[in-house]
Design brief:
The protein is an alpha+beta fold. Helix content is about 45%, strand content about 20%. The protein contains three helices and eight strands; from the N terminus they run αββββββββαα. A hairpin with a 5-residue loop joins strand 2 and strand 3. The chain is globular.
Length: about 240
């Protein structure tokens, strides 16, 4: 099918471009984030939602990397490793190591009362579980893990002090990693569709077209956010 071939080529282009941007942005962040971590002490911005120890390490993982054992309810200083399934955690007392990201979740405090149109009863000072911080400036969070999450302005939710300086490029990098994962997954789906001998119906073609359009839109949105950040940084440097 010509459309599927073109779609696969476009998705591959997006994936390759995103990979290149990730490499450059990650390199820029590495030194600054390391310095910021060294400037701040232990900050319990995470909690274990399930136990994790050596028996939970996935097969094939190098057990010499250094892992931290936690039990449900442990408070930790957590730094998710973007693009992987791991988070670097520091327990109260200084023990540190890798923990599966599925075993820990970020927690924060509501700083300002959300406007009524957001449809939430959250109040300043309440703890929330952070599901995702988005590069657009919004944060998805919930009062409990069983509650429906709501989007709040990121400025109305607390964060680890080490994240303040490089938050925008870090969230852009997170978005790029998610986009790359979506592109890789859809690329595999397209490969499978092209092998179907019985032909592809109109519904599947429409769905594929919509997915390609969605990936392109997200790519353009992230590139626009990155460009805006870089221009603001350049203007700030020129003003010095």
């Amino acid at each position: 099918n010509p459309f599927l071939m073109q779609a696969q080529e476009r998705v591959a282009q997006i994936k390759d471009s995103v990979s290149e941007i990730i490499l450059g942005l990650a390199k820029d962040l590495l030194g600054v984030e390391g310095l910021e971590r060294s400037r701040h002490g232990w900050f319990p911005n995470g909690v274990a939602v399930q136990a994790f120890d050596e028996q939970h390490i996935p097969p094939g993982t190098d057990k010499g990397l250094g892992f931290l054992s936690v039990v449900r309810g442990d408070r930790v200083d957590v730094t998710p490793q973007t693009g992987t399934k791991w988070s670097w955690c520091i327990a109260d007392g200084g023990r540190s190591g890798w923990v599966l990201s599925s075993a820990v979740v970020e927690v924060a405090r509501v700083l300002t009362k959300p406007p009524p149109e957001l449809g939430t009863s959250l109040q300043p000072g309440e703890q929330v579980f952070v599901m995702r911080r988005h590069y657009s400036g919004w944060t998805l969070c919930a009062k409990s893990l069983s509650d429906d999450p709501v989007w709040l302005l990121d400025t109305s939710v607390s964060d680890h002090p080490k994240n303040h300086k490089m938050k925008r490029p870090r969230l852009i990098l997170d978005g790029l990693h998610l986009l790359k994962a979506d592109a890789q997954s859809f690329e595999a789906e397209l490969t499978q569709l092209r092998t179907l001998s019985s032909g592809i119906g109109a519904a599947l073609l429409r769905e594929a077209h919509q997915k390609v359009a969605s990936l392109i839109e997200e790519y353009n949105n992230i590139c626009a956010a990155l460009k805006a950040y870089q221009e603001e940084e350049s203007e700030a440097l020129n003003a010095l």
